[in-house]
Design a protein that fits this description.
alpha/beta; seven-stranded parallel β-sheet; single chain; about 25% strand
C-alpha cells in the first residue's frame, strides 16, 4: 500500500482516480506550513501539490520514505529541485495538461482586441450606443506572428489557421521540419515583428528572453498591430509598452501575465487600448481536472512501475554506474553547451560517438547528457537526464549514438556533432587523468582547452597581427586573458583561437572583436 499526501487543493477527478485504486491510500491536509509538513511527511511515499506548498530542503530531509513530488501544473519554483535530487526524490510536473486552455485564452484575446469587446461592454452598460467608435477588423487573412513554437504556440497556430489567418513563427530551437508539419512559416525575429498584425508570445522567461519585446521591437511593429502575452510576465518591457500604446505606435495589447502580479499602480491600467485578465491561462475547469488527473496518474505510475513521466530531476543511479560514467557524462554536457553556443541555426540531429575507453560505459547516459548541455536554459521546462530525450524529440532533434574501441592519439574520446541543415559542428573532448575534461577539437581545428569559465572562440584568417589585435581589444577593455590556444591554419589559411577570459564580455566589446580585420566570427561561451 502506497501512501500519498495531498497538501494543496486538487480537482475531485484526480482524487477519485487515486481512491479507485486498491494499492493507494491518500491523506488530504492543506494549509500546512514548513514545520507542519515536516511533522507528517515521513509517513508518505508521494506528495502531490499545486503552488501553495513549499517543498524545502528541510521538508525533503524529513521525508524519509518519500519517492516522488508531483506538481499539478508547470511551475516548480516552490520545490527545491537540488535538494530533491540529493535525497533521491523524483520531482514531476504536468507541462502540457493546460496547454489547450492557455492557447484558447490567447485566441480569445486576439478576437476581443479585434472587435473591441471589453470597451463595447462598458459602453452599453453606460447607456451608450457607440457603433461608430467600435469599428473592428476581421482576423481572416491577417498575419499572426507567434514568438515561441512549443506546445502552446503550436496549438495557437492550428486555431489561427482555422480562422483563415496567415501564421508565421520564430523559435530558434525548433527545426524547419516541425514548422512545415504544422503549416507554419518560420522567420527570424525581425521579420516576425515587422509583419505582425497580431503578435502573441509563447516562449519561456529566461535571461535571453527578458524584455524580448522592448522599445526597438515595438517601434518596428505596424501601427495597426496588436500584442498579446499569455506566457510569462517580463517578456515585455511594460514601460516601453505604455509609451507605444499612449503614442499609438501600436493599436492595442492584451495581457494575462505581468512583471509584478497583481499589477497594482501600473500606468497601463489607465489606458483604454489594452485588455487585462488576472493570469487566467490555466483557469478553466477542464484544465484543473486535466492537471489533477495527470499528476495523480504520473505519481501512481512511478510508484508502481518506476517509470518517471515528466520528471524534472534525476532518478537514482547505482554507485557503480555513476562512478563509471559520471566523468564522461560531465564531458558530454560541456560539449553540448559549447555546441549550443556555436550553432547559428536550429540543431536537427545530434550524433554522439564514444571512442577508446569511453566506449566501455553505457552510451545512453552520456549521449543524453550531451542533450542536457545543448538544451538546458533554453526552455521554460528544466532539462535533465530524465526528460532531455523527450524534449529533444519534441523540438525535432534526433539522437544518434555510436561506440568504437578504436581511437587515435587519445585513450578516450567523446565526440558530439550537431547537424543543422547542410551544416555541421563537430566537437571532441577527452579526459586528462580520467577526471579533467579537455576540449581537443572544434571541426577541423585541433586545439586543447580547459572548458571552464568564459571562453571566446574566434575564427579568423591566419595573418600576422590578428592575435595582437584581439588581445588589444580585450586589454583596452580591462579584460584579463587567463589562457589562449591558437590552432594551426587549415588549407584555406584560416585558424581558430579559444581564449579564456576573466569575465564575460558585453555585446559592445564582442562586437569590437568581430570588427577586427580578418576576424569573421567571435562567439562567447559561458560555462
Amino acid at each position: 500500500m502506497y501512501k500519498i499526501l495531498i497538501s494543496d487543493k486538487l480537482a475531485e477527478a484526480g482524487i477519485n482516480y487515486l481512491n479507485d485504486r486498491d494499492d493507494i491510500h491518500i491523506h488530504i491536509e492543506t494549509g500546512l506550513n514548513e514545520d507542519g509538513l515536516c511533522e507528517i511527511i515521513g509517513d508518505f511515499d508521494a506528495l502531490l501539490i499545486r503552488s501553495d506548498t513549499k517543498v524545502t530542503e528541510k521538508v525533503l530531509k524529513a521525508a524519509s520514505r518519500l519517492k516522488v513530488v508531483g506538481r499539478a501544473g508547470i511551475g516548480v519554483d516552490n520545490v527545491d529541485l537540488a535538494a530533491a535530487t540529493e535525497q533521491g526524490v523524483i520531482v514531476m510536473n504536468t507541462p502540457d495538461a493546460n496547454a489547450t486552455t492557455t492557447a484558447e485564452l490567447a485566441i480569445a484575446h486576439l478576437l476581443s482586441l479585434s472587435r473591441h469587446l471589453p470597451f463595447a461592454d462598458r459602453s452599453i452598460r453606460a447607456g451608450k450606443w457607440e457603433r461608430s467608435k467600435l469599428m473592428g477588423s476581421e482576423v481572416a487573412h491577417k498575419t499572426l506572428s507567434i514568438l515561441g513554437f512549443g506546445t502552446i504556440g503550436r496549438i495557437v497556430s492550428q486555431r489561427a489557421l482555422g480562422l483563415g489567418m496567415q501564421v508565421i513563427a520564430y523559435d530558434p530551437f525548433v527545426t524547419p521540419e516541425i514548422f512545415e508539419s504544422y503549416g507554419v512559416k518560420p522567420v527570424d525575429l525581425d521579420e516576425l515583428i515587422e509583419k505582425a498584425d497580431y503578435l502573441t508570445l509563447h516562449c519561456p522567461l529566461i535571461e535571453k528572453t527578458k524584455n524580448i519585446i522592448g522599445r526597438n521591437q515595438l517601434a518596428r511593429m505596424k501601427k495597426s498591430s496588436m500584442l498579446i502575452n499569455c506566457a510569462r510576465g517580463g517578456l515585455i518591457d511594460e514601460a516601453a509598452l505604455y509609451d507605444a500604446l499612449i503614442n499609438n505606435d501600436i493599436a492595442g495589447a492584451a495581457l494575462d501575465v505581468y512583471e509584478h502580479e497583481p499589477p497594482v499602480n501600473s500606468p497601463l491600467l489607465a489606458l483604454d487600448n489594452i485588455v487585462f485578465t488576472p493570469h487566467l491561462g490555466a483557469s478553466t475547469s477542464e484544465a484543473q481536472v486535466a492537471v489533477s488527473v495527470e499528476i495523480a496518474r504520473q505519481a501512481v505510475t512511478y510508484l508502481t512501475t518506476g517509470e518517471a513521466v515528466n520528471a524534472l530531476n534525476l532518478p537514482r543511479m547505482s554507485a557503480e554506474q555513476l562512478k563509471k560514467a559520471s566523468q564522461f557524462m560531465r564531458l558530454a554536457n560541456i560539449l553540448g553547451k559549447v555546441l549550443a553556443n556555436l550553432a547559428t541555426k536550429p540543431i536537427e540531429r545530434v550524433e554522439v560517438a564514444l571512442l577508446g575507453k569511453a566506449s566501455e560505459v553505457e552510451a545512453r547516459p552520456v549521449s543524453v547528457e550531451a542533450l542536457v548541455g545543448l538544451l538546458a536554459g533554453k526552455l521554460s521546462t528544466p532539462v535533465n537526464r530524465v526528460n532531455a530525450e523527450r524534449i529533444a524529440k519534441r523540438q525535432g532533434i534526433a539522437l544518434v549514438e555510436s561506440k568504437t574501441e578504436e581511437t587515435h592519439d587519445y585513450l578516450s574520446l567523446v565526440k558530439v556533432t550537431g547537424f543543422c541543415g547542410d551544416q555541421s559542428i563537430a566537437l571532441s573532448g577527452t579526459l586528462l587523468g580520467e577526471s579533467h575534461p579537455r576540449l581537443v577539437q572544434i571541426d577541423r581545428f585541433e586545439i586543447e582547452v580547459a572548458p571552464e569559465g568564459t571562453l571566446i572562440v574566434t575564427r579568423h584568417d591566419d595573418k600576422p597581427g590578428v592575435i595582437s589585435a584581439i588581445s588589444a581589444v580585450l586589454g583596452n577593455s580591462n579584460i584579463n586573458i587567463t589562457r589562449m590556444e591558437v590552432s594551426a591554419a587549415d588549407e584555406e589559411e584560416r585558424a581558430m583561437a579559444v581564449i579564456s577570459i576573466s569575465e564575460p564580455l558585453t555585446d559592445e566589446i564582442l562586437g569590437q572583436l568581430c570588427d577586427v580585420p580578418a576576424v569573421f566570427q567571435a562567439t562567447q561561451i559561458i560555462l
